[in-house]
Amino acid sequence: MNAQYPATAPQQPAAAGDGPQAMTPSEAFVETMVANGVSEMFGIMGSAFMDAMDIFAPAGIRLIPVVHEQGAGHMADGYARVSGRHGVVIGQNGPGISNCVTAIAAAYWAHSPVVIVTPEAGTMGIGLGGFQEAKQLPMFQEFTKYQGHVTHPARMAEFTGRCFDRAMAEMGPTQLNIPRDYFYGQIKTEIPRPQRLDRGAGGDERLNEAAELLAQARFPVIISGGGVVMADAIEACKALAERLGAPVVNSYLHNDSFPANHPLWCGPLGYQGSKAAMKLLAQADVVVALGSRLGPFGTLPQHGLDYWPKHAKIIQIDADHKMLGLVKKISVGICGDAKAAAVALSQRLAERTLVCDATRAARADQIATEKAAWEKELDEWTHERDPYSLDMIEEQKRERTFNGGEYLHPRQVLRELEKAMPEDVMVSTDIGNINSVANSYLRFNKPRSFFAAMSWGNCGYAFPTIIGAKVAAPHRPAISYAGDGAWGMSLMETLTCVRHNIPVTAVVFHNRQWGAEKKNQVDFYNRRFVAGELESPSFANIARAMGAEGIVVDRLEDVGPALKKAIDLQMNHGKTTIIEIMCTRELGDPFRRDALSKPVRMLDKYKDYV
């Protein structure tokens, strides 16, 4: 029988700011986390931090064991993005920590306040090539906002507190590196009070310049970015948009940054985004990039449209001054909080006569017309039009091996999933062909609802991220999208859901290929397919073997009911469900047309491979 914690009440914990007290370094570490509101952590237990782990539970901290540490990092990311609080990940020194690098990089590009705790080899063994020894700070230096290395046990609370403060202040991951022998001993220390910044609207001069530009604008457009979500600025963005009568487009992969049920919402930019959003942005004479760094991948031409307005004045508002004007030439740069800046601009415009007021009704009609045209196109866009895709459709019609079922067209599947989405849903998407096409179909009315790997673009992201999101918001339906390639990198975390009662729904698009890269082989390499095929057993059967539910969908009319059944199992019965949708091998637009060109071969032996 496992030993239990003492039945007697624990001593009163050290309160932040109460002055120096005697304690162990492990207690200082744990109490500082408690002071920062930590109630859940993700990771795999290890001897390197076992002394601290022994007191997690009596401190009110739940350590959620995962299958692989990369999954733990993604879970911490999802937790942070939903809650607005820190996500925390921890693991064994050496290999446990190195397994987290990819996940921390994803959190970095998502601006998530994740704290990764990296216990290190003991100080008396560093440099001797001992067991699981590694230089753990260089591993993360490109993907963290701050790296705190505990240089003495007595400084444990100091560095721990600083890592939590900096993660929130700079909206990104921080690393707390602790030599494993520094958890032990006796110290006298004070638990630091958490320090949080109040972010302002920006300088008056720049805000006045922006207001003047907007007052003279004939066709203003607002790009609502991730900073709007992080600043809880949706209502402020709505107020500014309504004052201007301006169409609002979501920045790339931030589909939850403006409510889709608002008449001024036009959809997302970027890869597989909304044509309505792109056509309206192309007409802008003044663009307000609110809480957006205007990342290069999110403004590339798409659907044959080079939509970025060439002569528009750009007002960029970002909490990080280093992002202002970095990608696009701007007219006014405002270093400020998205919410505060939007409120300040609305106040400056409240009593002014605006040039765009004269065309408000016509602009509203145009917004509605463009949105209706795009919705009609999506309804009619039932399969991809690439010749290779059409060949695959015919080939798979002949296969029909699913007891009367058939391979389903991804776009039709995505439309049916969209129709069946529950209210208040959270969705994470992996990288890949079908997941990218989903950008056209995913709409949200509430912020902190959509999670993607952003600029890092790593496979295996979506499923563990939605698990972390579900831990942070157990009352909300949680759904992940993944192709079969990305699913193969993350399906083992189904065990985490089953073992620890974290019910989620995973939609797996089973088309037996690496679709995004295969499209490049179609367009640039004359259909010479190398390493693109993925033949797999039934993912639904694997799910059942793990203790979850598994549903195979091979008829279009079953897509919506399958999702609704899975959500019922999740919300009312605490069950994780894997929905395996058998899809055709048709391919959407290439993911990186901007980064490829037709090959040139110099050697005779390769002359036919052009």
Account of the 3D structure:
With 610 residues, this protein is α/β, with parallel strands linked by helices. The chain is 35% helix and 15% strand. The protein contains 22 helices and 20 strands. The strands form 4 sheets. Strands 3-2-4-5-7-6 form a 6-stranded parallel beta sheet, with helices on both faces. A 6-stranded parallel beta sheet has the order 11-10-9-12-13-14, sandwiched between helices. The chain has a 6-stranded parallel beta sheet with strand order 16-15-17-18-20-19. Helix 3 (69-83) crosses helix 17 (462-472) and helix 11 packs antiparallel against helix 13 (360-380). Strand 2, helix 2 and strand 3 form a beta-alpha-beta unit.
Key structural traits:
610 residues, six-stranded parallel sheet, 35% helix
Whole-number radius of gyration?
26 Å
Uncertain spans, ≥5 residues at pLDDT below 50?
1-11
- Distance separating the two termini: 68 Å
Percent of residues in helices comes to: 25-40%
Largest beta sheet: strand ordering: 3-2-4-5-7-6
Q: How many DSSP H or I helices?
A: 22
Please give the largest β-sheet. 6 strands, parallel
* Mean pLDDT value: 93
Number of extended strands: 20
SS-derived structural category: alpha/beta
Strand percentage, roughly?
15-25%
Note the overall shape. globular
Task: Briefly say what this structure is.
Helix content is 35%, strand content 15%. It is an alpha/beta fold and 610 residues long.
Give the SSE layout.
Blueprint (H helix, E strand, L loop, with lengths): L20 E3 L1 H11 L4 E4 L6 H4 L8 E4 L3 H15 L3 E4 L4 H4 L2 H9 L4 E7 L15 H5 L5 E4 L6 H14 L4 E6 L7 E3 L14 H13 L3 E5 L1 H5 L3 H11 L3 E3 L14 E4 L6 H7 L4 E5 L22 E6 L13 E4 L2 H12 L10 H21 L6 H13 L10 H11 L5 E4 L3 H5 L12 E3 L9 H11 L5 E6 H5 L5 H6 L5 E6 L4 H10 L14 H8 L2 E5 L5 H15 L3 E6 L28
Parallel strand pairs: 2-3, 2-4, 4-5, 5-7, 6-7, 9-10, 9-12, 10-11, 12-13, 13-14, 15-16, 15-17, 17-18, 18-20, 19-20
Antiparallel strand pairs: 1-8
